[in-house]
User: What shape does this take?
Amino acid sequence: MDINAVITIAKQELIINIRNKWTLIFAGVFSVLVLAISYFGLLTAGSIGFQGFTRTSASLLNLVLYIVPLVALVMGTLSFTSEKSASELLFAQPVTRGEIWLGKLLGLFASMLTATLIGFGLGGFVIAMKAGTAGALRYPLFVGFALLLALAFLSLSALIAALCQRKNRAFGVVMFLWFFFVLFYDLLVIGGTFFLKERTANHFIFASLFGNPVDMTRVASLMVLNGKEIFGVAGAALTKFLGGEVVSILLLVLGLLVWIVAPFLLSQRLLKRQDI
Amino acid sequence: MIQVNHLTKTFGEFTAVNDVSFEIKPGETFALLGPNGSGKTTALKCLVGLMPPTAGEIKVDGLDVWKDARRAKSLMSYLPQYVNFHDNLTAREVMQFYCRLRKLPETRIEKVMSGPQFHFNGFTDKPVQQFSGGMLQRLGLAVACLPDAPILLLDEPTASLDPERAIQFREFLTTLKQAGKTIVFTSHVLADVEQLADRVAILVQGKLVALESIAALREGLMLSSQMRVVLPQADEKLAEAALVAGTREAVWQGNSLLITSAPETRMDILAAIKTAGGDIVRFATEEPSLEDIYLNYIRKEQ
Assistant: This one.
């Protein structure tokens, strides 16, 4: 593995994404979301004003679970299925296809990391100034899970790009994937439980968590952000099923890592003998 | 330098390159010629490691292009038919990227970009989105020249250049050729092939139908050189005299005798006609263009 080549490609990818303004747009979106949710989060309860980190993170979670996968899939598909003529020149260089693919993934992740750190960092700074630093240590963990989720969906976009090769087809598939993981998956799991006995259905629901990186991120984030209070009985059953709170979080992180590594390795395997 | 052994490339049921073998010597300029869909770009892409062959093998300096890709590719530079770069990068940034990728000293960038053949004056630090098709092609060629690799592989290199730039480009390739580079290119532009190539491989429907020097190609074809001899009137005796002197075919067209022969026999034929009593009014030679040869092969194959 030529690390120099990987870093060169990653840097180029980061520069392209920053110049495309994608990174800055997403940074702006994240920042506005954090501030808006923190300020208007209690509007239905009749009050407005900045809330602390824990409450803001919990409110922000659902939006992050919608936006981060979408952004990662769009950015990933744009990059991994770049213009054929640009790819030809790159793939004709004395670097392996694996190095090119890894460089692109790391560059894309660096772009997402930049957007996330700027967006959530700026929002976090304002919250710290206005509402204090209580729960501030859990906020970076929540951002960390969002980044793991981004990496998992970037990895999925690499796989889809390798499978589809053409940009239009790849976009169609990633849109389906987004709907599937964000909306349909839970409906399917709930539907599946109707055909199972109660005990089996519970185990099925808990195990099904690992089939969806969005669900894993949701549960892991909630566990980090005062899980017991938020989860109630279902959360207690889940942590018992998985072997305790810390083990549960570690298992969920491990699950996310599998979702990052497996699609990417599969995409590299597909790419290895593909026509460019 | 390059050995292609029984190269076959299929896309599903379609065979784009069919059992093609040839060898390219160091310092040789080699053209792949053929109509659209004849497999010349596919063959070139297999050579540069962009497409894995379905069967056969390609070796560059003894290295298998597919199994020892990194080392084999470090000996080659490739210019695709259509060049495209990210719009928001400048020409210099594009060059820097490929320079770093190949671990070259950055001094190479100035050396290549200041070359008169590239004409980057004023555009070096402008975004690529402001470049015309011809300028993109020149940037692509500059990237290809960056590593000073011993082998240059060019796919339709003059396709998007205006005539003036195409002439300059041919001159530039001639200097590279004189510098000892091995150049392999595909082209529809017969002027490129006639001016630059030492040898030509003609592909028709994926098959190699000819592999010869341009002169040998001309020589080997019966339609080779023609000479039109204008006489006061048609006389079969004069045609017979021409045939005896080495004419392959002699046909009367009005009072013109159309003679097909090897170029070196022309003077003998003219002398024979004169000796036989022919009062030659004037004569003109008609050299077959590469296009004639190329079309003849295609017709024969199809």
